[in-house]
Amino acid sequence: MVIQDLMKSISLCLTTFFYTQMNPILIYMSQVPQGFETPAFLINLIYYRKQRNLSNRFEVWTTFEIVYFEDMNTLIPNVIESVPFVNLAEIGESLTLALLNLPFYEFDVIVPLFICSLAATNMNFKILSVGTDGHNSNPTLHFYVDYHFFVQMSQEKKKMYRLYVRNNIK
Known about the structure:
Blueprint: H1 2-18, E1 26-29, E2 40-52, E3 57-69, H2 83-98, E4 101-106, E5 113-130, E6 136-152
Parallel strand pairs: 1-2
Antiparallel strand pairs: 2-3, 3-6, 4-5, 5-6
């Protein structure tokens, strides 16, 4: 439940930071459909660790990869070799600002409920232009962000169904 809420919070943050009427950006979670439209973001969870502390308190470490796919149709054809890397580096810098303090929401309620703000503990990015098959492909930005936080799990107490009282008066 925490992971889905974290991914939705990241998606909401990306939408508010990057979305414009002139340039809408699609956001996918965990997988990209075949023939997807660009520009687009893909949010992947690549590391998750939960360690129990005292009582019902847990320490959680997460690492997310956010991949940005550039729209190659909007670039000028004769400078297509250098412009994507500059633009992708600027997108990477913008992502560091957008995800530095992530507003965390709970989405199980009717209206998303703001819980807290999570501070990123580690952020970095790289730009890759080689596809998985070894051939050149469109350059993509791979942004990595870590969040480290504590979760307090609520425990439901078993309620007593009936209480029998014997009172003997002498």
